Amino acid sequence: MTEHAFPTFNIARLPKNLQGTFHALYSNGNTHESYLPVNGIYHGDAREILPKIEPNSVAASVWSPPYFVGKEYEAHLTFEDWQNLLESVINLHFPIIKPGGFLVINIADILVFKDHAMPRVQADAVNKKRSPVTREDVLSAMRKYPAYSRNQLAELLNCSEQTIDRRLHGNNIRGGKHESQTRVKIVGGMVERWALEAGFYPYDRRVWVKDAAWENSRWASLSYRSVDEFEYLYFFWKPGITKYDRDRLSAGEWKEWGSRGVWEFPSVRANDDHEAKFPLELPRRVIRLLTDPDEVVLDCFMGSGTTALAAIQENRRYIGIELEKKYVELAKSKIGSGMQRRLISESQNKNYADQP
Ligand SMILES: C[S@@+](CC[C@H](N)C(=O)[O-])C[C@H]1O[C@@H](n2cnc3c(N)ncnc32)[C@H](O)[C@@H]1O
After folding, report:
1. Distance CA 44, CA 29 (A)
2. Considering its fold, how many domains does the chain have in total?
3. Residue 222 half-sphere exposure toward CB, CA atoms < 13 A
4. What are the pLDDT digits (tens) for 51-74?
5. What is the average per-residue pLDDT within 69-81?
6. Is 306 in the pocket of ligand 1 (CB under 6 A)?
7. What confidence score (pLDDT) does residue 126 get?
8. At residue 47, what are phi and psi to the nearest 5 degrees?
9. Residue of the nearest CA to atom 7 in ligand 1?
10. Is the distance from the beta carbon of residue 68 to the nearest atom of ligand 1 less than 6 Å?
């Protein structure tokens, strides 16, 4: 792709610090056949595969990265590794997104983030005291039987070991008594910084309201914290010409979700084949809002292939990248059946249209 491919895009109107990057991107005469073919799922680390995508070719990239919440596929990452991964991936997007195109990141704050420096939360859970044993009872038993273990004290006072521990040390309401404290880690600021440093501009942010995860809420009964029930979508824009086409959605769709800051639809019920899928509706909305048919949609944390399926449904082309071989296979087989379904429905529509 050359500068010629964007005849009305005036690089001179960009901030000075971006002009050099853009010139380099447009003047590399990239006629390389070696760029990754579209409509493919590629196995490997996003950081190694993203540079193989044709520069300025992706209309929208939509993905949900590891959230640093201890899933199987991210268990090996330290917090530093996780930050480096996201920072590099965002950075590597800048050359490949087309000018005026978008990077959309679906992410959530980390609700149980270990912080070794955080003071212990001493919870006085007045409604929850089931055992009548008081701290004074425990202390006086300890004075009387200084050699007693916690277990023996519990037996003596007819309560649980946990009660003994709670009376002595207070409740550690997040995590077990020997774990460090946990707090909320807000990720939006970090993502914004990485995107700005890469050359993108924050364009929009939306909230996806999903089902409330009561069952996952270890602390719900013993704190003032809310349950996990929403995530963010951060939209970053690469400077360039952006087509505004109000016909991409119907008037009803604009009203219902196109112009709305809050999107409400359920999360995936059965995470049977992948631990953390997003529902098809999420990439589908992003794709319909930001791209035209036949444009290229990217997901570099492809997982089970949801974004590719949405792209196929909406007649867009796709590129997917995934680290785990088993998910690459899963995505490919889902895409295979998705294509089949589409071909069948197209041929049924055609037969119907052919009827006299
Ligand atoms: C939150 S999941 C995405 C799920 C996907 N949206 C779906 O609907 O199935 C994140 C995915 O990123 C993959 N992953 C983790 N690190 C990666 C890396 N460095 N490069 C590519 N994929 C990676 C994980 O294996 C996981 O499948």
Report:
1. 27
2. 3
3. 15
4. 999 999 999 999 999 999 888 888
5. 87
6. yes
7. 66
8. -70, -25
9. 277
10. no
